[in-house]
Each structure stands twice: as structure tokens, then as C-alpha cells.
Amino acid sequence: MNYSSSRSFSSSSSAVPGTDPDEIDEIAVRTFDVYSSNTVKKKGNKGISIVWFRNDLRILDNEALLKAWVSSDSILPVYCVDPRLFHTTFHFGFPKTGALRAQFIMECLADLKKNLMKRGLNLLIRHGLPEQILPSLAKSFTAHTVYAQMETCSEELNVERLVSKALNQGSSNSPKLQLVWGSTMYHIDDLPFDTSSLPDVYTQFRKSVEAKCSIRRCVKIPKSLAPSPSVEDWGSVPTMDQLRLEPQKVDKGMKFLGGETAALNRVHEYFWKKVKRYEKERQANDSTYWVLFELIWRDYFRFLSIKCGNSLFRLGGPRNVKQTWSQDPKLFESWRDGTTGYPLIDANMKELSTTGFMSNRGRQIVCSFLVRDMGIDWRMGAEWFETCLLDYDPCSNYGNWTYGAGVGNDPREDRYFSIPKQAQNYDSEGEYVAYWLPELKRLQKDMRHFPGKLYIDQVVPLKFGNPNKFQGKASSSVRPTKGFRR
């Protein structure tokens, strides 16, 4: 992917998806219709079950939602605005959820609530700890089960344990917490190995699942999820003021809209409008394969989080690598704020802080610079990404950072990204850096990445890479390489 060829550099922000507003609902309705059914039958228990929405703020292909509907007369969808989500990160005290990510989550909640209401339900929104809210609701509604999507990392697992323990206090007929797998393309039960035996090398994992596994079909959700339980106050989506966060307007770059409706439109836009009409009407080739390749990476990191446990978050990583890291605050702040003196790094970091987004390639480059050239503790970078990224996921984020820092379970992933080479390959005209750093627009294109005294001083020298070697050369086409996978 070339930075310059894949983006339109307008002075204002561009909505993502960029679908015409009149088309958005139409595309969502068509997609919902394909993956919904009128023939799903209820069976088993009567009464009410609770669906606890967590990081799965969608209706389509939501097996926890389906299981709850099939097993009950009615279901109560619940989202808990957990204050712990808005505390600080574990080691360095950054905001755990920054303003842009919080706004994105609230947009997802609003869309989920709207889509549930279209199907005869609603979303009960409560502020507080799930381990207090859910048992109280289960008692009030005499719910027999709380269904939720299974998570894999320690903070989420701890909340699951607290909820389960609180539900089970009482009689033998206490409601149970039933967790349902639903966060990967390849189902955990279909893997050709136990997660404890997960290959340490991604390529081995990919080849194994491609050869021995098939991707399950999407579960079809009933077109009507009614009846709804009688609830006096369903609650509303929190405002930024209620979250004690300052709203942040995206006035430049790509403005991603949160929610399932937007996601369905983005998929439609990406495949049918941007990838050459999905390679001439679904003809597979290298371009379309890379989408699958990246999704398998995402699966791998999810399964890896089960195998590695908390070592994914420790300084030495899964391999317990002994290395001395700096936590120099000034150096880190120059990286965080996009003032390192290296335009490619600075542009990416400014895009992140402005929009909550950074390309896969950008994530690899800024990670390499932080840990290789600056020698900064990789966890500082990982926690800052946790603050900012709209698409933050603990498995992919920390899995990628351990790989980028050379402490991941695959020692071959100890890689260095040369800024001069990356600049030449992906932004040879300097359009991307000039967009995010307007002071570079007046410079000749071959000077924009290494403008010398015409830009701010470089905070550290590069360990590898001669800037002059790559200037003035034509851009080459380079395939994606292993790195940050979302």
C-alpha cells in the first residue's frame, strides 16, 4: 500500500464509510435480510435470559444473542458502562480510553440500540460494575441465564469471574453465566490443535488452519427478537460529559463512524467500490487474498493470548527476554506528539491523535522507531495505542507490540523498519507527510522526508538506513509484511 496512492488528501475530514447517506440504511437492510431468518425455532427453557454485550456490539452473526433467544421466552440485552474502562492504563497512567475511542464506542452503542429496536427489543444501558448490575437484574427479572461473548485477556477474564461468582451466590437454581465463543474467523473448537500447542510461528499456524479447517457459516438471527421484557427505564447512551471526557472533533483525515450499520457499509464500500469491484465480481487473486491473510493474523493473536496469558503484557514478553529499556519521558513525548524530527513518524502519530486511526504499515514503522531507534519501553507505545486506537483490541495490540519489540514468541520477528526505505516505498512523493505536516508542502517532493534544517531537529539518530540512498528514486511496489494486524 502506498500512502499517497490510497488516500485523498483533502483539507477537511472524510467520513468513513463514504457511502451516500441515502444508501446507508438500504445497504444495511439488504445485508441484515441476507443473514436473518424467519425459520429459527425456540426450544428448551422458558422465562427470561440476559444478553450481556461487551466488545461484540453487533446483531449479525452473534451466537450469544441467538442462543439466548432460542432458549427463552424473551431476552434482556444489557450493556454496562464499566467505570474501569475509563481509568488509566496499567503501567504508565495514560487514559485507558481516550476521547476518540470513547466517542466511537458510544456511536456503536447508539447503533446497536437502534438495530435492536427495529427487531422488537431495546438495549438496557446501566452505569456501574457488571458484577453488581447483572446479578441485580437477573434477580429482578428472574433470569435463568446470562449469555455473553467469551474473552481471553486477564482484565476481561477477571470481570467474568466476578460476574459468575456474584450470580452463583444463593440457591442451586441461581442463574448461570454462559460464555459463547464468537471473536474469530476460525472457531476455536475447529482448530487442528489445542491452544496450548499453538504454533509459535504464524506461518505454521496459517498453513495448518488453511489446510485443515473451514470457516463456519454465519449464524442467522431471527428477523424479530420480540417480545421485549417490561422495563421502566432502558437508559440512554452516555454523553461525553457523563464520561467526564472532552469531545474531540475530527476535522482532518478519515473520520470513522462507529456501529454495525457503518461497518456493513464499509465492507460494501471496500469490496464493491474500492477493490476493482471485488476483482471483477469475486475473482480471487493476490489483492483479495491479503484481506484473508490479515484476518488470519487477527485470529492468531486471539488464540495466542490464551496460550501466553499475562506474559503478553510483561516487559520480557512471552519469551521473557532480558533487555534494558528506556522510559525517558521527553523522548517518549516527542514520539507521542509527532515531534521526532522524522516526518514519516510525526505524520503517522499526528494522524493517530487526530483521528484514532493509523494504517497497518504506519503502526509497524512507528513501533520499530520507538523500540529500535529510541530504545523506549515497548509497553509505553502499546499503552498509548490502547488510549487512541478506535479499533483497539488487547490481543492484537499487545501481540503486535511484543512482536515489534522482539519479545514475542517467535524470535524471527525481531525486525527493523528503515525509515528511508519505508518512505521511498510508501510515500515517494511526500504527499502523506505534507498533508499531516503542512510546513513541508512548500518543499521539493524529494526533500519532504529528510528536510534537514528546514524541519525540526531529529531527537535521535537512526540506527540503520542512509537517508540519501533513497531520495529521488521511483516508488516500488511492495507486498504487506508481518507486523501490526488489527
Please characterize this protein's 3D structure:
- There is one protein chain.
- Helices cover 42% and strands 9% of the residues.
- The chain has 18 helices and 9 strands.
- It has helices at residues 3-6, 21-34, 63-70, 99-118, 130-141, 154-167, 202-212, 260-274, 276-282, 286-308, 329-337, 343-355, 360-373, 378-388, 394-404, 419-426, 431-436, 467-470; strands spanning 13-16, 36-37, 48-53, 74-81, 124-127, 143-149, 176-180, 221-222, 253-256.
- The strands form 3 sheets. The chain has a 5-stranded parallel sheet with strand order 5-4-3-6-7, with helices on both faces.
- Helix 2 (21-34) packs across helix 8, helix 10 crosses helix 15 (394-404) and helix 14 (378-388) runs antiparallel to helix 15.
Write the layout of secondary structure elements.
Layout: H1 3-6, E1 13-16, H2 21-34, E2 36-37, E3 48-53, H3 63-70, E4 74-81, H4 99-118, E5 124-127, H5 130-141, E6 143-149, H6 154-167, E7 176-180, H7 202-212, E8 221-222, E9 253-256, H8 260-274, H9 276-282, H10 286-308, H11 329-337, H12 343-355, H13 360-373, H14 378-388, H15 394-404, H16 419-426, H17 431-436, H18 467-470
Parallel strand pairs: 1-9, 2-8, 3-4, 3-6, 4-5, 6-7
Helix pairs in contact: 2-8, 5-6, 8-9, 10-15, 12-13, 14-15
